[in-house]
Amino acid sequence: MRTRDFVVAAVLVVCFAEVRGQTAPAGAGEGPLFHFIEKPGPYAVGLKVVDQYDFSRTYRPKIDAEGKPTVGERARPLQTLIWYPAEKSGKKPMTVGDYSELLVTETSFVKPKLWGEWKPWIDGMKPTLKDSLWAVRDATAVNERFPLVIYAPSFSAMSWENADLCEYLASHGYVVVASTSIGATARVMTNDLEGIDAQALDISFLIGYARTLPDADMSEIAVAGFSWGGISNLFAAARDNRIDALVALDGSMRYYPGLVKESGYVHPEEMTLPMLFFTQGAISLEEQAKDFASKDNEGPNVSNAWTHGDLITVDDMALDHVEHSSMYQRNEEIWKHYSENRKGDYSRADGIVGYTWVARYTLEFLDTYLKHDATAMGFLKKTPAENGVPPHMMTVDFRAAKGAPATFEALRLETGKKGFDHLAEVYAAMKKETPDFKIGETAMYIWATELQDEGHLAEAIDVLELELQLFPDNSDAKEKLKAMEAVPAAK
Prior knowledge:
Layout: E1 2-3, E2 17-18, E3 44-58, E4 75-86, H1 96-100, H2 118-125, E5 136-137, E6 146-152, H3 163-171, E7 175-179, H4 193-210, E8 216-226, H5 229-239, E9 245-249, H6 257-263, E10 275-279, H7 285-291, H8 302-305, E11 311-316, H9 326-330, H10 332-338, H11 348-369, H12 374-381, E12 394-399, H13 408-418, H14 423-433, H15 441-453, H16 457-470, H17 475-485
Parallel strand pairs: 3-5, 6-7, 6-8, 8-9, 9-10, 10-11
Antiparallel strand pairs: 1-2, 3-4, 4-7, 11-12
Helix pairs in contact: 4-5, 11-12, 13-14, 15-16, 16-17
């Protein structure tokens, strides 16, 4: 499937793709019910549910749908789930049904109300509602600090659409935080910049909230997103420098490059974060030609532009789009309506195995970049066969970052590494790679002033000399340089 049109089936939940027109293999919708077959890590898992508001944003209008003044809180509601490493407990763990009960308070904390679209969803989940997962509500947290992972759900989806993955990460020493995917002013997400920005701001809000969690290590933060959440996390990372790594589960950044371009501030060619990108498979040239006729698809190919941060691309040959969510795999309505989109003769059982390897690669990626584990890096660089992945399940490509992006921030960083006497050549190298790279006069002047104020006169002079090469008529820079050079031993 291709993530182009948003389809309502059981619910308005997933950023689904356009149907490829494949004929479903016999029995595609049949097979074992989903169960997560990966083993837990060394920690038990706790779960806390926090009903909170982002008071900096308005969610409900002053006048409701009936034309009456809105009663109750109008701020943005964010039902927040926190999975965390916990002490072992004798209490019963969460079931799928327990997670489903959270749906009634997603956006209505005071007066629980089930969104109408969830009714058929719950019906589709009936065969698995009693299935037990790992998390125990309000279990005692382990008295340590762990890296933080924000999980961004797919289009209009519940926060726990990938509860198995979130629990799995928590069992291996991560604090995982998620909130529901809702639009800017309504429960339904919108497939536009307003919708992306709403979820991207949710991600940043959750990072800020995590500062209140005693077990969250705020120096190591990743954002994982499925489908629509896999474009919102890109937008969040473009503005939030607290984010250290990205995981995209068949993310919509792949399918909506036009929205990336339209944003005006998301520049994948300048980003230096490591990213793990799962895809549902290759897209034919014919499909590309058809889709790129749409305005939404006229923009940068994010993965191709991602050259200044490590990129690990995993082609999940056995999975279609929805199978990147464990809860969608559990839903019989999904299989009823979308079985025709399965690839080749892969079975439903293959989807269960494939999801397990998605979880494993996600863990190894996070261990590499948040825990700085050399063994995990070795795993990422091995072939799938060397890691024990069954044949024909996935391909993996590791592309290491190269060079520095042509940005003012990167110029300062590279100059700090190589020395200010190499400033001009660092700038020249960036200009050669990106001919339209420009630095503003004001930015250069402020940089020199900062260095001067901190007592680094020689370095400030190097900056001013480059500024005058670029802007020879800048009288302020000339005067400042003259004054600095008059200071004894300035150079």
